[in-house]
Amino acid sequence: MPPPGPKPITFSRLICIRRACQRAARGGRLAVHYLKPLRAGRSWRRCRFAVVIGCGSLFLQLVAWPRQVAGQTNLYDFRPAHNPDGIGKFYMGREIAQVMGHESAYWLERPQRVAEEQPDQMVGQLKLRRGEIVADIGAGTGYFSRRLARAVGPTGRVLAVDVQPEMLELLKNLGARLGLTNITPVLGSVTNPQLPVASVDLALLVDVYHEFDFPREMMQAICGAMKPGGRVVLVEYRGEDPAVPIKPLHKMTQAQVKKEMSLLPLDWVQTIELLPRQHIIVFKKCSTGRGGTAAPASLRQN
């Protein structure tokens, strides 16, 4: 015979408790709504047991969430021993770098950047046309958004995407000072830039792809936002060159970029090596299949 104890709570009562807990959580009154009915005529032990059951239900849901994400991102590998500049998460053999926070926004606007990266020359290589829709992914303070806005003119538009609201606030303020009205800030997530489907002529990713927490998911969403034949351009510090004074995880080789893009509906078009420290690696959205086919010979440039 089991030892004496509190009368067990029935399954139907647990269902009622869970529903009450859910209603209270939605109203922001979990402690009041959930505990008060239990105080009337019930012991503290029963109350404590009910709280454990409710918390356990929530815990199981939280535990299930990473498994769901992992099921969608099974190309990722996690290693406890890793580079301190990375997050310990690996994709196709590459460790993902830590994101630069908005506290370091001044670095994006440093005067030396003009000589180090030649941003106007880079934008010129994109050969943008008036009226085009351009997505600046990982726009930060809008350093490139402002240049893109001038390139596409008043009939074009720049969708400046960032996951940090603080960066977007800086971007809006700097753009307003220059009288640029064709930049639209977009708050994205770590898996989705939140862009309309088939709406973008060119997506530009400058020194940002290597920081994506979910590169596969993010790039799939970017591809979905591209118009047929739209271009995706990655600008990354050259990982092949040890003389480039950037931390290794914040550089990428051309081979690694092509390898990771090969899983997407993107065809490599050309790699432009005119900048002092960075590649300009151009891809084009293909109409069928997963991509990865070679570019026409007339468009290739190593």
Explain how this protein is built:
The chain is of the alpha/beta class. The protein has two domains: 11-72; 94-299, Vaccinia Virus protein VP39 (Rossmann fold), CATH 3.40.50.150. It is 38% helix and 22% strand. The strands form two sheets. Strands 4, 5, 6, 7, 8, 9, 10 and 11 form an eight-stranded mixed sheet that branches. Strands 1-2-3 form a three-stranded antiparallel sheet, with no helix packed on it. The longest helix is centred in the first third of the chain and has 29 residues, at 44-72. It is globular. The protein starts with 10 loop residues before the first helix and ends in a 17-residue tail after the last strand. Mean pLDDT is 81; it is low at 1-18, 20-44, 49-73 and 291-302.
Compile the SSE list and pairings:
Layout: H1 11-27, H2 30-39, H3 44-72, E1 76-78, E2 86-91, E3 94-97, H4 105-108, H5 113-117, H6 119-125, E4 133-137, H7 143-152, E5 157-162, H8 165-177, E6 183-187, E7 200-206, H9 215-225, E8 226-238, E9 251-252, H10 254-261, E10 266-272, E11 278-285
Poorly predicted parts:
1-18, 20-44, 49-73, 291-302
Order of helices and strands: HHHEEEHHHEHEHEEHEEHEE
The class by helix and strand makeup works out as alpha/beta
By DSSP, the count of extended strands is 11
Number of domains: 2
Gist?
With 302 residues, the chain is α/β, with parallel strands linked by helices.
Features:
10 helices, 3-stranded antiparallel sheet, alpha/beta, single chain, 302 residues, Rossmann fold, 8-stranded mixed sheet, disordered N terminus, 2 domains
